Amino acid sequence: MAIDSTSAASKLAGMRLPPGIYAVVGIVAVGTALWSLAPETGSRGETLARLVEWAPALAHGFAMNLLISIGAIFIGTLIGLLAGALAMSKSFAGRLARLWIVAFRNAPWLVLIYFTTYVFPFEIHIFGTSVPFPDWLKVMLGLALPASANIAEVFRGAVASIPSAQWEAAASLAFSRWQILLKIVVPQCVRRMLPPWMNVYAIITMGTALSSLVGIHDLLDTAQIASSTVARSSFTVLTYVATLVIFFAYCYPISWLTRTFEKRLRTA
Amino acid sequence: MDTLLHGFVTATARLGLDYRFLLDDYERVPFVQGLGVSIEIIVSTMTASAIAGLVLLLALRGRNRLVSGLARGFIEVTRNTPTLVQLYCAFLVLNMLITQWLHARGFDNPFKPFFWVVLVLSLHKAAFHAEALRAGFDALPSQTLEGAASLGFSRATRFWRIELPLALRAALPALVNNMVELVKASAVASAIAVGDVTYQSIMIWTQRDNVLALMLLILAFFGVLTWLVTLAGRWLERRYRIPGYGY
Q1: For residue B196, how many other CB atoms are within 10 A of its CB?
Q2: Terminus-to-terminus CA distance in chain B, angstroms?
Q3: If you ran DSSP here, which 8-state letter would residue A211 be given?
Q4: Is the pLDDT of residue A31 over 70?
């Protein structure tokens, strides 16, 4: 393992610049071009100052995106692993789990978010006390549903990549099916599941932008508020390009790491 | 037809689902139109994304380093930012600038929200198509390529007659998957008030507060569409199977 990590480190150090660098240069170039084309009512410097003024609000909005994405991936992983494990069995529960996976893989995310936002109550009554059920939690659950279906597929794929001879060998040593799964197969799967799991997380993070449509004050919603408050074309250009750059700056390193891990797995 | 509709509404009412909007022309007609608009968006995006994906692939594989670098950068941006943010960047920024520029010269903006949705979704999916095709090209057996080169085919002929047909077949499952994702992604059109099925449903449920009933209808609609795309994909895979590969 130690040799493994040092070789990975040297590999990382010797790597060329990722193509994302060019992408960032491209966005900034196009953004600047649009900004210079945009009609300006005041001075350009003042517009930039406005963006700096709004930066804390935008950062606060992005924190909401992160909160939702982390919660959704956490809940989604728990349900997904369970659904994925159940989907492998031939029982009634297995059939239900497969139905769950198919249903939530084929539903548009936006519709699922509307679904959880409008169908769930705004507070829950438990033993006489009412607990508020905030909108961000509903969106989190709405994104956790497709996340769970995708992670269940990731889990199934990883288990399918383990030679079935291992199942037979373990069964001949009198392990039960659940014991084989939990003690022999899953430990080997974790490494293989990491890249696709990170991929699901990046997609979920991008999906959190949809929460602005149901009135969550996330980054995109804050950008909309900012552009309509300041009401200047050049500022609108700046805020939306900034939004694009922020999402890219967060999601691109994840996808780059995912590819690096995939390459390591293939050579390992 | 009318009695059938009435029967459906009363039957579902017993289950606690409110489909009464179907009996009201002022709501049923826009809803049915919304279904049509959604299908229009999906079909035009599928076509445009296939063409744009091929163009991106040509740019990626071309000999011009600058063009292939730009294509690479575009794909990275598209894959790593939310579609909704891209849509807003196009509609609220580009479209706004175009409108202002044209207005200053006394013209109206000819681009409608429908156009922007199709454009953004097509370019978004084109990036995924190009990636799938690139993987297909990487999977081509080197013997085939060498064989084709040794028979004296030109670079263009090799690409169009040998490499692309084989890569397309290898990439077909991934391409079909992209198309299924495209069907699902088309729901974002409602964000910029294109009158698609999601948008019309929002209009209805803000009036009637029957979110669950409409939601089930939309999910069934998208379920049928994704199922049809999957079926078409399976048919294509069988039709264009490479003998001796797969199962």
Answers
A1: 26
A2: 46
A3: G
A4: yes
Question: Most B CBs within 10 Å: which of A25, A65, A104, A111, as the mutation test of the B interface?
Answer: A111
**Chain A (83-142) residues lying within 8 Å, Cβ to Cβ, of chain B:** 103, 106-111, 114-115, 118-119
Q: Is residue B58 part of a domain?
A: yes
Look up the CATH number of the domain holding residue B181.
Answer: 1.10.3720.10
CA distance B109 to B103: 8
Given a cut of 70, whether residue A3 has pLDDT beyond it is: no
Strand residue runs (E) in chain A = 123-126, 129-132
Please list the alpha-helical segments (H only) found in B62-112: 65-79, 83-88, 95-104
Q: Are B186 and B84 in contact (CB under 8 A)?
A: no
ipTM reported for the complex, 2 dp? 0.85
The tally of domains found in chain B comes to 1
B134 touches A at CB < 8 Å: no
Nearest to B198 among A111, A233, A255 (CB): A111
Assigned domain for B209 exists: yes
CA A228 – CA A232 distance, rounded (Å): 8
All structural domains of chain A with their residue ranges: 23-267
Tell me which amino acid residue B108 is.
Answer: D
Question: Could you say which of B74, B81, B94 has the minimum Cβ distance to residue A248?
Answer: B81
- Its domain, for residue B208, covers 31-239
Listed residue (B178, B175, B225) closest to B198, CA to CA: B225
Whether B96 contacts chain A with CB within 8 A:
yes
Q: Within its chain, how far is the Cα of B175 from the centroid?
A: 11
Indicate the fold that domain A23-267 takes in CATH: MetI-like fold (1.10.3720)
For residue B17, being part of any structural domain is answered with no
Rounded distance between C-alpha atoms, residue A209 and residue B183, angstroms: 19
Q: Could you tell me if residue B123 is inside a domain?
A: yes
Confidence of residue B239 (pLDDT cuts 50, 70, 90): confident
Q: pLDDT tens digit string along B158-182?
A: 888 888 888 888 888 889 989 999 9
A residues 177..216 contacting B (CB < 8 A): 202, 206-210, 212-213
Q: pLDDT by residue (tens digit) across B184-228?
A: 989 888 888 888 888 888 888 888 888 888 888 888 999 899 999
Q: Are A240 and A227 in contact (CB under 8 A)?
A: yes
